[in-house]
Amino acid sequence: MLHKHCSLSSCKPISQPQKPQRIPSVVCKAQSGKAKVAVLGASGYTGAEVVRLGALHPNITITALTGERQAGKAFSDVFPHLVTATSCPKLIKIGDVDFSNVDAIFCCLPHATTQETLKQLPRHIKIVDLSADFRLKNPDTYTEWYGNAHAAVELQKEAVYGLTELNREQVKSARLLANPGCYPTCAQLPLYPLIKSKLVLPDDIIIDAKSGVSGAGRAAKESTLYCEIAEGINSYSVGKHRHMPEIEQGLSEAAGSDVKVSFTPHLMNLSRGMQCTSYVKMAPGTSVDDLRAHLKETYANEFFVKVLDKGIVPHTRHVRGSNFAMMNVFEVRA
Ligand SMILES: NC(=O)C1=CN([C@@H]2O[C@H](COP(=O)(O)OP(=O)(O)OC[C@H]3O[C@@H](n4cnc5c(N)ncnc54)[C@H](OP(=O)(O)O)[C@@H]3O)[C@@H](O)[C@H]2O)C=CC1
Ligand SMILES: CC(=O)N[C@@H](CCC(=O)OP(=O)(O)O)C(=O)O
Question: Could you tell me which CDD domains the record lists for this protein (predicted)?
Answer without folding.
Answer: AGPR_1_C, AGPR_1_N
